[in-house]
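Entry for the shared binder. Reason: the reviewer on the internal report wants the predicted structure included alongside the sequence.
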Amino acid sequence: MNRRAEILVQLERHLSAHPDALMHRLGVGAKTIANDVQEINKQLSGAASVRLDNGRYRLWVIDRDRYMQARAKLLDVSRSFNDPRTRVGRILARLLRADSPVITDELAREMSVSRSTVLGDLSQLREEGRPYGVSVIGRPHAGLELRGDELAVRLLVLDHHYETLYSGYPVDDELMVPLDEAIKAFDLGQHAAADVYRWYTVMLDRLLTGHPLEELPKLYDAVRELPSYPFGRQVAEGVATLFQLKIGPAEAVFLSLPVVGMRTPGHARPLNLMAGGQDGVQDLVPLILDGIRAEMDISIPPAALLKEFAPHLTFMTNRLRFRIRLPYRAMTDLAAAYPVAFRMATIAARTIERELGLDVPQVEVGLLTSYFQVFLEEQRSSGALALRVAVVTDVGRVSARLVQLQVAKVMAENTEFSLLTLDEARSEVLDGFDLVISTSLMTLRTSTPIVELAEVFDKEELLGHINRLRFDRSVEIPLGAGNRSLLANLVNRDRFVRLSPYLDYRANLDRMLDHLIQLGYLDESFRDALAERERRASMAIGTDVAFPHATLAGGGDQLILAIGVIPRAGDEEGLRMIVLLGVPEKSDYDDTVLIDIYEEIIRLASDRPGLDRICRLTSYEQFFLHMTNSRLT
């Protein structure tokens, strides 16, 4: 599929796509993506339009019938030799099945393209084959040949060109019997079965065209000791019986690999049968959690991850060890959608690379992100009871109901509201609620936190009150999605500091600390605690933002957050913003507080144009207005 077709399909499947995700997936720059989108719009001829909306490409369909016609043409071109991927796959297929050297001019004639185009495609094939040890040798006029061991050739095909080589490849029902019987016997799910089918198809084709797999690198000897090896052996024995061929153990190992490295199954039997080798992986879990705690100061109980995460790590490390790549999926957008989970996944990947000496590709980081995000969501919702809110007014019922509706826009969906008159708002009644919202000028007596508002109030005003309760008094108030900046509500005029572009990070941080210590917000022990944390882990969030944070000593019970901005020109590199945070002891606050702040900071760090505006702000008031009106937050 060519780039333009792939962009269109991505937008259809995922509704929107960040330019960075498309750049990473397609391996091109921002300008190329923008040019492709422009060309797509020309080909759609007004039937639909791809536009940037809030930093993401979105597809708007105007005339569905005309759009489907234009789409069919665009995707049909992607399957022709106008598509470089199709051409490279065709060249690989010719080289794989050739009995003699292949002449470059023959390839050009077969695909109706120029000789120079074929030479460019050969260069791409050589680049793809290099990590596998597969090469194209020979001279264009004398003929070209493919060189590489059989396993390497098969992995190259599976990772890069399976669809081109085997789309529509005929596998008769009779040939499927050995595979179907093994899938049923081992109770593989549909997803794993579909991946095994790809490997089985490649094995059949290579075997029946005279390219059996006879030898494997020594590292694959370990596969024979794994619980999944009997699956591959059963399939290989079935194929040997069907064709009356002698098939060696290397083919059984090959057929075991997609099971050894499959996505973690959703039910227990294949999990128990296939994973294997979990002891070493379980040792990785505490190392990963220690890394997250050291770098992010976020604690995850080991038991919370061991049940599902440890099996995932087992299958994942199998994939890395035995060079099994999952089919590419659009994982890159997870970094933008779940920034905190993505940072955790990045730390986990670094730990795996350090401990096992195995490179972790981005698609695996994406899967790790999914696991961490599920954990974060479950932690956020576990045990969270519906918040009971009393709305107290001294006006009529309709006006009180209007206040409730405005408050509900900020609160979580399961919040329970009760409308009370002043006569009903006795202390023993109010003490039974989690939060009181009052629009009355009368003083209410209750131990429950109170937010006082005018009858007509702004959403941002209410959110500011609630966030101060959440973070200053550790009141658990779940908010709805889409609410505005936490940073704007947690900083104040004293804690917004303009820094110098002529000083380095350490000097600017010391300037912030001196300022906050002088005002009594912090003491020297916090400077020491921060230095200790920075010796263990980097506080940088990208190149433009730093997030130094540490625990407050001496029993402090309130979060202390300060913002430092470093004015820079748009094309000038360097740190633009320091977010300094002091948090109470872990027993005094929930990690979700830190996670919420982390998420907003990471989103800011990915928005360079927004940071360019923030770093040139000169006052807390400007910062507050910018953050509460920013679409990013």
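Summary line for the report: The first strand starts at residue 16 and ends at 17.
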